Amino acid sequence: MPGPHDVPAARGLVEAVREFLERDVLPEASGRRRFHALVAANLLTMVERELELGPAQAEEHRERLAALGFGSDAELARAIRAGELDGRYGEVRAALLEAVAAKLAVANPAYPAAPEGASAISKP
Q1: Residue 4: other Cβ atoms inside 10 A
Q2: pTM as predicted
Q3: Which of 15, 39, 88, 100 is 20 to 30 Å from 107 by CA-CA measure?
């Protein structure tokens, strides 16, 4: 869908800078400069994933919040702190795990998933 800006779009610009770092800077860099170039390339890869996945993830997050009866993360957090959702532990836990999985899909999709049935989040 064409936007208000001409080509290249943000996605293409981010990709071009990342590829420049990977192809031209990293092979010639060493020490601290190499480390910073690697960090920058990794951050640009995260931006690429966010540009690709972000709109759908935002809609899914709004739907998760709405299913719980909230319009924002702040409202959900307030209700959790107030103990208003204690009787809906399973539903809230599932929604929060989905939200974390979406964040990891952008930040680090290689992060290992917990085995089926296991979770780092346990019920108190």
Answers
A1: 4
A2: 0.74
A3: 88
